[in-house]
Amino acid sequence: MSNELNELREKKKDELMNNESKSKKHIIVYSTNTCPYCVMVKQYLKQKGFSFEDKNVSMDMLAGIEMVRKSGQQGVPVVDIDGKIIVGFNKPVIDSVLGL
């Protein structure tokens, strides 16, 4: 019984640490209303438990300028994870940068 309790405690501790590291990531998604890949990248981040700031570049000209300055291009989505810029919905790169 004691062993099971210790295992449960360790599992809970790992979950808490994992959630804490997720909340420490600063993620910005530059997107538009009509981009299906933008929707997919935002859904993917939510499924993985990450919160993010969504900047709609079709509605916010300053966000668009910021995105182009960071990425060097006008295509969306652009994902900024702690300053690492990812162009497009590239799961392997996103996972790598997120430490998944």
What do we call the CATH topology? Glutaredoxin
Name of the CATH class: Alpha Beta
CA radius of gyration is 17 Å
The helix/strand series, from N terminus to C terminus, equals HEHEHEEH
Q: State mean pLDDT (0 to 100 scale).
A: 87
Count of individual helical segments: 4
Major sheet characteristics: 4 strands, mixed
Q: What's the helical proportion of residues? A: 40-55%
**CATH superfamily caption:** Glutaredoxin
Distance between the first and last residues' Cα: 32 Å
Domains (count): 1
Query: Strand percentage, roughly?
Result: 15-25%
Low-confidence stretches: none
Shape assignment: elongated
Number of strands: 4
The appropriate CATH architecture is 3-Layer(aba) Sandwich
Strands ordered across the widest β-sheet: 2-1-3-4
Strand-pairing-aware structural class: alpha+beta
Topology:
Blueprint: H1 2-24, E1 27-31, H2 36-47, E2 53-56, H3 61-71, E3 78-81, E4 84-87, H4 91-98
Parallel strand pairs: 1-2
Antiparallel strand pairs: 1-3, 3-4
Could you explain the architecture of this structure?
This protein has 100 residues and is α+β, with helices and mostly antiparallel strands. The protein is 54% helix and 17% strand. It is elongated, with a radius of gyration of 17 Å. 17% of the residues are buried. The model has no long low-confidence stretch (mean pLDDT 87).
